[in-house]
Design a protein that fits this description.
Blueprint: H1 2-18, E1 27-32, H2 37-40, H3 47-52, E2 57-63, H4 69-78, H5 97-103, E3 108-112, E4 124-125, E5 128-129, E6 150-152, H6 155-161, E7 168-172, H7 184-199, E8 211-216, E9 238-244, E10 252-254, H8 260-271, E11 292-297, E12 302-304, E13 308-315, E14 320-327, E15 330-336, E16 339-344, E17 349-359, E18 364-373, E19 376-382, E20 387-389, E21 393-401, E22 405-412, E23 415-421, E24 424-429, E25 434-444, E26 449-458, E27 462-467, E28 473-475, E29 478-485, E30 490-497, E31 500-505, E32 510-514, E33 519-529, E34 534-544, E35 549-552, E36 557-559, E37 563-568, E38 575-582, E39 585-590, E40 594-599, E41 604-614, E42 619-628
Parallel strand pairs: 1-7, 1-8, 2-10, 3-6, 3-7, 12-18, 20-26, 28-34, 36-42
Antiparallel strand pairs: 2-9, 4-5, 8-9, 11-13, 13-16, 14-15, 14-17, 17-18, 19-21, 21-24, 22-23, 22-25, 25-26, 27-29, 29-32, 30-31, 30-33, 33-34, 35-37, 37-40, 38-39, 38-41, 41-42
Helix pairs in contact: 4-8
């Protein structure tokens, strides 16, 4: 099993090293409910959905973080659970997709089936339930104007007809059509009736930038709590996620481990958000499901001189036969093959450059970036600004302009570290651990000096468990947080308890409430990077049981009916629900850490149990025997 995991991680490593998520200003998300992967893929009840798989990309190892509708869906739009209250009407001030969409001047809408009116804030109406509409629970969407972007699903037909669909669209079928209360067959029929009009939009035609996700919030509630193929408890189970659009790899099935935060990160990268909410910030995007074009020079938003050197390559599962370069929407260059390396003359000022590939299956894939042409410029292609690097640091730069460049220099923290005659350099410069200010400058014949400055962090691969503190004693679940620093990007972090894999995330950091049994344990955080490196840190933790104290009635006491029952757990225990069972039958429940109630009981002997549920799914209980007179 471990050998298979190594192969799987290495396979993604290759994809991650050379691919970027395609740019998109048209992202759609359709959410379904409460079914495991095995219920859907290959099911005779979902013939339409299964007919989509051969032409699109399936994430076959995609797992929900948790059960419970609203918090499970929150991971898709906020990168965290936000709340456990499925009946909330609160506007939460957390970073979320709406905030990021608005920050880049794009538009959003939530198309909600059975929503009675735009901006409706109630918990339910007909077959609509608010808990399946997570976008409206944030301060950014609660303003008087933004709340009107939550609209009845019927508005979609009007928006399509008026060419007024948003940049980010969140689609929620109602309870009978999302497989929550209805059947999978009903959900499949709804998709077959509604999806074609979306896929007919221009952005979903060849060369378009549309990306559509169909995903489920969680698996079956009864018995699927899988976190991945090796961990069977602690999460929300294995679910289906299908990625559709002209940029996906048709018929591709990804075996890499994904979760909702990876889908969120994919959206963030595709739409060019300034930030990605919470866990999305450290998650890896779902790069392997796309055919892509990667531009290695010039960097996006770079200041350049004319002629502009453009270097690009493709990552495509179909044979690419043509590469093209457009400047300001005009074709300027074309070459046969899978890569391009040329220089194009451009006038001073800002230009939009698009590199486009054509494959033998009709796929058109592209990547665009802005550059600003100046009289003189220094372009640094390696390393990227603010990147983490290993020493010696490879610095690759070119320079040019109207005046011939005679030499180039590199300063590190204001000290000359390297110089060379000519207009380009490729140097490896030693740097001590820590942050450094680097300036690459070009000297030209006119006596001018042109500079490009940036910061880098020189570091060795490091894994740091930031919580819990070592040798401490804690309740379960234990909140485990950890970070990584690595010049070769980390793409998977694992947690082991006593040499048993208990959690894994595809990303550069971990923040997870880990259920651990009482006792002393060895906790290990392990990171995998794209260079094949494996790094880890371990510590000892002790987990204590949650004491459930029953103060009334006393054990073996004789009492009168109704019986006064008082029970509690410590204030710092991670308990969210208390229950009272009488003779193995649930009689009372409260979302609190204390119980104070009275229950009617018949005469005779009874067994009363006070039971507490912790936030990791653990159950703690204390029972007393009583006699009712």
């Amino acid at each position: 099993m471990r050998h298979c995991l190594v192969l799987l991680l290495c396979a993604f490593c290759t994809a991650a090293a050379f691919a970027q998520v395609p740019q998109s200003s048209h992202v759609w998300l359709i959410t379904e409910e409460n079914h495991s992967f095995e219920d859907v893929v290959g099911s005779p009840n979902m013939p339409y959905f299964n007919s989509l798989i051969p032409d699109n990309a399936l994430a076959s190892q995609y797992y929900a973080n948790q059960h419970s509708s609203l918090p499970a869906l929150m991971w898709l739009v906020a990168g965290q659970a936000v709340t456990s209250d499925n009946n909330t009407t609160t506007c939460y001030d957390f970073d979320n997709v709406v905030r990021e969409v608005l920050a880049v001047n794009l538009k959003w809408k939530a198309y909600e089936e059975d929503l009675p009116s735009a901006g409706f804030q109630g918990l339910s109406s007909g077959e609509y339930v608010r808990r399946h509409n997570p976008l409206i629970d944030f301060t950014d969407a609660c303003t008087s104007d933004q709340q009107l972007n939550s609209v009845p699903y019927t508005q979609l037909a009007t928006d399509i007809a008026n060419k007024a669909t948003p940049n980010y669209a969140y689609v929620t079928p109602h309870l009978l059509h999302d497989a929550h209360d209805g059947t999978l067959a009903q959900a499949d029929l709804w998709l077959s009736q509604q999806l074609p009009s979306i896929m007919a939009l221009p952005e979903f035609q060849p060369g378009g930038d549309g990306i559509l996700f169909i995903t489920f919030d969680e698996s079956e509630l009864s018995d699927d709590n899988r976190c991945n193929s090796q961990v069977s408890e602690g999460c929300g189970g294995r679910i289906v996620t299908l990625v559709m659009g002209p940029q996906v790899r048709p018929g591709f099935s990804s075996d890499f481990l994904y979760a909702p935060q990876n889908l969120l990160r994919t959206v963030c990268d595709a739409m060019g958000f300034h930030a990605c909410p919470e866990a999305g910030a450290t998650a890896v995007p779902m790069v392997d499901v796309f055919n892509t074009v990667a531009v290695s020079a010039p960097p996006a938003n770079a200041n350049v001189s004319s002629p502009v050197n453009i270097v690009a390559s493709t990552n495509n599962d179909s044979t690419v036969y043509l590469m093209q370069i457009y400047v300001d929407n005009a074709l300027q260059y074309a070459v046969s093959g899978t890569s391009v390396n040329t220089s194009l003359a451009m006038s001073p000022g800002q230009h939009y450059v698009v590199v486009q590939s054509w494959d033998v299956n009709g796929g058109i894939h592209k990547r665009g970036l802005y550059v600003t042409v100046q009289p003189q410029a220094v372009v640094v292609t390696t390393p990227l600004p603010n990147s983490t690097v290993s020493s010696p640091v490879n610095i690759v730069s070119t320079s040019g302009g109207v005046s011939q460049v005679t030499s180039m220099q590199v300063y590190v923290d204001s000290k000359l570290a390297y110089q060379v005659a000519g207009s380009s350099l490729n140097a490896k410069i030693g740097m001590g651990p820590g942050k450094h200010f680097v300036v690459v400058q070009a000297l030209d014949k006119s006596g001018g000096v042109t500079k490009k400055a940036f910061n880098v962090l020189a570091a060795r691969p490091t894994v740091t468990l930031t919580a819990p503190p070592p040798n401490g004693t804690f309740y379960s679940p234990v909140q485990v947080t950890g970070t990584t620093v690595d010049p070769s990007p980390v793409y998977a972090v694992q947690l082991y308890v006593d040499d048993v894999l208990t959690y894994q995330v595809s990303g550069t950091a971990v923040n997870w409430a880990l259920p651990i049994s009482p006792g002393q344990h060895n906790l290990v955080m392990q990171a995998w990077d794209t260079a094949g490196g494996i790094y880890k840190q371990n510590e000892t933790v002790t987990v204590k049981a949650v004491p459930v104290t029953v103060t009334s009635p006393k054990n073996n006491s004789t009492v009168s009916s109704p019986v006064s029952i008082q029970a509690s757990v410590p204030d710092d225990a991670p308990i969210y629900t208390m229950q009272i069972y009488v003779d193995n039958v649930l009689k009372y429940q409260v979302d609190a850490k204390t119980v104070n109630t009275s229950l009617t009981m018949s005469s005779g002997a009874h067994y009363v149990v006070a039971q507490a549920w912790d936030t990791g799914g653990g159950i703690w209980k204390t029972g007393v025997n009583i006699t009712v007179k």
